[in-house]
Amino acid sequence: MTAQSLKSHFLLNEDVTFLNFGSFGACPKPIFERYQAFQLEMERDPVQFMTVRLIQYLKKSREALATYISCDADDVVMVPNPSYAVNTIAKSINWQVGDEILTTDLEYGACDRAWKLICSQVGAKYVRQPIQLPLLDAKTFVDNLFTGVTDRTKMIFISHITSTTALILPIEEVASWAKELGIPVFVDGAHVPGHIPLDLNTLDVDYYTGACHKWMMTPKGSSFMYVKKSLQPDIKPLVVSWGYEALFPSHSTFLDWHSLNGTRDYTASLCIADAIDFMETYNWTSVAKRSRDLVKTYANKFSELLDSPLLAPLNDDFIGQMLSVEIKTPDPEKLYRTFVDEYKIEIPVMRHDAKVYLRYSINGFNTAEDLDVLMAAITDIKKKGALL
User: Fold this and answer.
1) pTM score, two decimals?
2) Over 80: is that where the pLDDT of 124 sits?
3) How confident is the model over 313-329, as a mean pLDDT?
4) Partners of residue 76 on adjacent β-strands
5) What is the fold, at CATH topology level, of the domain defined by 3-28+283-384?
6) Which of 187, 234, 298, 300 is most buried when burial is the number of CB atoms within 10 A of its CB?
């Protein structure tokens, strides 16, 4: 199916060149219609929906998701977003004064903030190990990261795909080495489901969270939290509700504690099977490959135009459907508004410590013309000389 044909399935504004699938995804019409059908069902019969049907609907979603990401359905629960999962797990562990959580200096800012607050409360230390860029190969990255390990390291927290730098990190190698050292691993896989293959049984990490509302294309507010079965008793609910010390407990305390936490709209999470069906119907493996190829085709042009080196080799080990390049600009927020308001291009301009990155995301509806529009806009902005 052509990019133009796929675009007809999305609700995106046709006047906008959309190069920011990575931030919040975009929901195709068939999935969105299913979402609205669930919402209508809930509003027509709210008590029966929330108290009887919802738990069965969530079970079906967990089972579909578990098959898709290869894990036991009882080891995964639906959460609103990965930040919720990070907070849940980080606040559950019995940290001791002086404990260290090792991470990279490439992590998502919201997660950095959560860890810093929690560490400040318990006397632990969040260690942001500097990572040498550009990446060279998996071994160099892993050696670089594990330089930060000490006898106080109690966890490694790491992105599977980074946000600002858009890099796929060698999680398999990290998990393998950490297991040899007896260090638990918690992976932030917000960008992974629907983007690159995920097999949690094979990966064998302790904790994993991913967003379904990004590359899996479910409605916003649909993510998951995976916890290895042996560790589940330690992970307390972030919001205590009726599932805690349940009057009628299920076979799984983990599910009881984390599946339902008060009145909110759970319907986005009920569309996971529909999203998987959509991807299967339109051969999303092929769509993703075409998208990765387009990302790589323009990578060097993008790099040269911004006079910034690429952050990793152009292969599937490090680059998926997103690419970031450092950009020199005195006002990232103004540059972002310029792309949106003057050029009708949706693309993030992201601060990360002292650097700023411009990141384009490609999905099945994008074409080379979209990236040509971006290149022309950057060229025009450079000529004007104010922001670049």
Assistant:
1) 0.97
2) yes
3) 97
4) 226
5) Aspartate Aminotransferase, domain 1 (3.90.1150)
6) 187
